[in-house]
Design goal:
Layout lengths: L8 H4 L11 E5 L3 E7 L13 E2 L3 H20 L6 E11 L3 E2 L4 E10 L3 E11 L5 E11 L3 H4 L5
Antiparallel strand pairs: 1-2, 2-6, 3-5, 4-8, 6-7, 7-8
Length: 154
């Protein structure tokens, strides 16, 4: 898929502003997905200087993992599946905050699982410098369908 053929993030992640934190999909492969964002996309979490604390990166990574799963489901012709962020492991934060305006690339690489416990190895890099800012594994619980989650997706 080329960047132009990806649906908008709002069609891939069941969040609305201000919690929809990614801008667009850059690439998608069978094993991983890369999305673009910036601190400017997260005003809810912004410091007074416009920067965003690096711990918000956990949600950037979880949303990128959700995008990966949804694109994979679409390719297989399957319905969307809800998931919940359970936590992270081996999270390494290399700086305190994401600078305002710095374009970021968020990568989610599938590590294990298809239902129940699912894990992704993730990283966030500065698109301008190439520096890795945050890296670690996010653990998610992936439901079989929306009824198992407790309702219908609205």
């Amino acid at each position: 898929m080329s960047a132009r053929s990806f649906p908008p993030i709002a069609e891939l992640v069941p969040h609305a502003d201000p919690m929809l934190l990614l801008d667009r999909v850059l690439t998608h492969e069978a094993t991983h997905t890369v999305c673009a964002t910036s601190a400017d996309r997260s005003p809810l979490f912004a410091n007074s200087d416009g920067s965003v604390p690096s711990w918000v990166g956990i949600e950037y990574m979880a949303q990128c993992a959700a995008v990966h799963g949804e694109l994979a489901n679409r390719i297989r012709g399957e319905a969307p599946r809800p998931g919940l962020l359970l936590g992270s492991r081996r999270l390494e934060i290399h700086q305190d905050a994401f600078a305002a305006g710095d374009p970021l690339e968020v990568t989610a690489r599938h590590h294990m699982g298809d239902s129940g416990l699912v894990a992704f190895d993730c990283s966030i890099r500065s698109a301008s410098s190439g520096e890795t800012l945050v890296e670690g594994r996010v653990n998610l619980y992936l439901f079989k369908d929306w009824s198992e989650f407790g309702g219908v997706r609205e």
